[in-house]
């Protein structure tokens, strides 16, 4: 019964990501971007495998469901003020999105912190689209969550590799 | 202009707490409960003063607004499944409430961790009422947030005191 | 080669724990103490199995080695002032021991926070002996690390169980 | 008496930084580098003022003293194996340095995470020198600590500013 419940949660978290336009492949490309210089034989398939494992963690699923829920409610204008405006404009002093991202990162330890911060600033690949405010979509939480999953997958890859890059 | 905006956010965070039945005095009593054995001359007024300072921090206000918003939406049944059920029953494997609590605690450093965990388990004072599921109210986030504010105020008190208890 | 290196680190972390008087059984008893009321069929052997899994995580090994190293150097008086005195007396405003404990806890998510704080305050079993200052030993880091491993094992147990306690 | 004790700790933390070749000005330049595009009228003097405030926080001082102590002991070869080798080569899977950095960052909330990760990857200014392994010096902890202080100062600046950049 528990197993079934967990599967529902993982299935839903993956559906919600897809529904917001984020494919496993998109996240894996961020991980590849982060790690290819350290691991010359790295393939996108390796990265996909690590992203899949990150997505199987309950803390990660909790973060995905909570963050996307808040993004959706923001788009529909269903939050109360002043929260509605803060999330709508992704206000710089609002940090609960980073807090949720950190809870995802921490599952694979602190070594992902640098990678997370780096791609959050550089906005490669899917992160660029998620930050495009011109679409009318709200991805205040999702962009941080996607960056955190990609950085967590990079940490997992480093933990399971034969090569240990210096930090 | 910025000052005005900050004041709106602090005012709203305090209003939302009151609206959910949590007075500054209630939180100060938790802090008093945590610290009176270390500081024999401690008064409730001292604790109120420290709780007020904790409430003036923007990170704390962000946590209050986000957590109470999610509790309210849960009560109204406005969240999507499976999140609605997870928050409704305060599910044990859902930890985003603790994640938000930790972001409040961290503003006054790691020394508040023990106090937070202790009152979250013991549920003294207002925390007992917030955990009473028989009322039909949902305080999945709020009980953790109130415990974290009380523990953060205890840390602030220790940082500003003449007496340094051993940890 | 990597596998071999990891094994050395895990082996050493376990040796250092034993050398400081902490057996896997001691930690498992803390986990049992935390969880037996939620899981009536729980055995010490179950708890040992979860503690073993926690000890296999690299972040946990890093925390054990770093914390015990600092405790040892403190006992030998080899740290520079004012750090030597701060660690010697386990000063209340020094929180790096809790910071390291948190990095261990986070590997199994935020749901262990409450359990960690609770046993850190209550000091059952081995934690009572580690906090006995009359022995001349210094366990400023180790007591927090042992509590965090026990709480992480309790989280792991909850994640892998058929029964989901409310948080 | 407490006031005096705190001053000793702050004074020592500042002395240790200087002794390791890190001036307040060096850290302020990192903060300036991070924030100048958001705040066109920003001066180095503004940044120095915020770095000074960050250095006045006890958690930050604890992190500085603990990290530099471990770096010094590593240089002298006084740590036990395998920790000595892990810190000597700044091993990629050792994350306690990032854990300590995070405890510094968290004092000013989660909004500094991105800035920390960014400069830790880019290594501008003083961070480039601290990462130069050819000198024989060991700065495994110090480089992360300096980056975290600079990012915390950037967060403090944003919290106290009239202009709110989007995150």
Automatic annotation (TrEMBL), chains A, B, C, D:
<dbReference type="InterPro" id="IPR036681">
    <property type="entry name" value="PgpA-like_sf"/>
</dbReference>
<dbReference type="InterPro" id="IPR007686">
    <property type="entry name" value="YutG/PgpA"/>
</dbReference>
<dbReference type="Pfam" id="PF04608">
    <property type="entry name" value="PgpA"/>
</dbReference>
<keyword id="KW-0378">Hydrolase</keyword>
<feature type="domain" description="YutG/PgpA">
    <location>
        <begin position="48"/>
        <end position="159"/>
    </location>
</feature>
<dbReference type="InterPro" id="IPR026038">
    <property type="entry name" value="Put_PGPase"/>
</dbReference>
<protein>
    <submittedName>
        <fullName>Phosphatidylglycerophosphatase A</fullName>
        <ecNumber>3.1.3.27</ecNumber>
    </submittedName>
</protein>
<dbReference type="GO" id="GO:0008962">
    <property type="term" value="F:phosphatidylglycerophosphatase activity"/>
</dbReference>
């Amino acid at each position: 019964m528990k197993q079934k419940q967990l599967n529902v949660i993982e299935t839903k978290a993956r559906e919600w990501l897809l529904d917001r336009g984020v494919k496993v492949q998109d996240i894996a490309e961020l991980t590849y971007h982060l790690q290819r210089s350290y691991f010359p034989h790295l393939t996108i398939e390796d990265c996909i495998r690590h992203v899949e494992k990150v997505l199987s963690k309950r803390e990660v699923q909790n973060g995905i469901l909570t963050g996307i829920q808040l993004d959706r409610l923001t788009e529909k204008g269903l939050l109360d003020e002043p929260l509605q405006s803060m999330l709508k404009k992704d206000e710089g002093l609002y940090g609960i999105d980073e807090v949720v991202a950190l809870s995802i990162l921490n599952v694979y330890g602190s070594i992902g912190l640098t990678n997370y911060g780096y791609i959050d600033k550089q906005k490669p690949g899917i992160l660029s689209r998620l930050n495009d405010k011109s679409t009318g979509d709200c991805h205040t939480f999702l962009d941080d969550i996607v960056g955190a999953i990609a950085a967590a997958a990079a940490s997992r890859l480093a933990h399971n590799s034969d090569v240990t890059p210096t930090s």
